[in-house]
Amino acid sequence: KRPAGAPDRELAKPVKKVGIIGAGLMASQFALLFARKLRVPVLITDLDQSRVDKGLEHISGEIDQMQEKGRLTADDANQVRALVRGTTDTGEYADCDWVIEAVFEELGVKQQVFAEIEPIIPETAVIATNTSSLSVEEIGARLTRPERLVGFHFFNPVAVMPLVEVVRTPGTDDATLATAMAVAKQLGKSAVITADRPGFVVNRLLAKVMGEAARALDEGTPMPVVERALAPIGLPMGPFELIDLVGWKVAAHVQDTMAGAFPDRFYASPNLHALADLDEPLVKSKHGKVEDLSRAAKKQLKL
Ligand code: 3HC
């Protein structure tokens, strides 16, 4: 059955080489997924070789773990390893038919990245962005062919989370949308098509939970109390454990975007921002249960 709003799947274009811009945590997680599931060459790039190397190391470590756990045979592991390559030369993207970016969540940076890559890639290539809450249409403002732009939003941890949000802008054409839906399916993900609105669907809901948890912290409720209080609701993770997983910077950015778009409905927490400045995991866990904020976090908040 065709998902709501999906165009005819016959329109989907084949993807024979994937180009990923960014080699950070999200990018390297989905680079591995593309290689494993599509079995096509995957290129990653970043600002400098050391960032590219870090991404490749992360991917290699994940492949080792999957092999150890018996999820990849030795042959498969070798094949997947050989498919992912890193480069700082975007010229190598000339034959990629699917390009996706996961660079810093700043509109200008993403616009710049696409303005640079568009003249290099084939005319028919799909351009995707993994933005969590920025306007996909605005990200494509400097493209000469914005009809081939689509949002393709993964969730952390990429290997496990079953969903991709496919974001259609008013300009996205049917072939691009059909290709995005086909790629999601090949990746083993279910896809929902969402409008290009701040936070799409998932982050609009999650930002409420995270924002209110941060507000409780701002109001003096200790973090472990918030986590414990929410446990009976049955979330797979408490709100702070989740913030720690997605990254404090990313979480603060999502809150800012939502509060900027809907000031009367969302809350940008000062404590969340103070902790995001530290840019590191800040939750201490014991036996899989969140215990407290880390020492660095408490120092930052003067607790
Ligand atoms: N990479 C690969 N596999 C992972 C993984 C990772 N980082 N983390 C966990 N897994 C796998 C484990 O290996 C395990 O697989 P198995 O059952 O085959 O052995 C399976 O996931 C379950 O893991 P665990 O048993 O260790 O732990 P849990 O049962 O507690 O599950 C969890 C961990 C899947 C992360 C679960 O806690 C969860 O679903 N958390 C919520 C995550 C979530 O909501 N993510 C969305 C964040 S929002 C976002 O990303 C958007 C952004 O824009 C902000």
UniProtKB/TrEMBL annotation:
GO terms for biological process: fatty acid beta-oxidation. Coiled coil: none annotated. Residues 199-288 form the 3-hydroxyacyl-CoA dehydrogenase C-terminal domain. The keyword Lyase applies. Residues 17-196 form the 3-hydroxyacyl-CoA dehydrogenase NAD binding domain. Keywords: Fatty acid metabolism, Lipid degradation, Lipid metabolism, Lyase, Multifunctional enzyme, NAD, Oxidoreductase. It comes from the Bacteria. The keyword Cell wall biogenesis/degradation does not apply. GO terms for molecular function: enoyl-CoA hydratase activity; long-chain (3S)-3-hydroxyacyl-CoA dehydrogenase (NAD+) activity; NAD+ binding. Belongs to the 3-hydroxyacyl-CoA dehydrogenase family. This is Enoyl-CoA hydratase/isomerase family protein. It comes from Leucobacter chromiisoli. The lineage of its organism: Bacteria, Bacillati, Actinomycetota, Actinomycetes, Micrococcales. The chain holds residues 328 to 630 of 711 of the full protein.
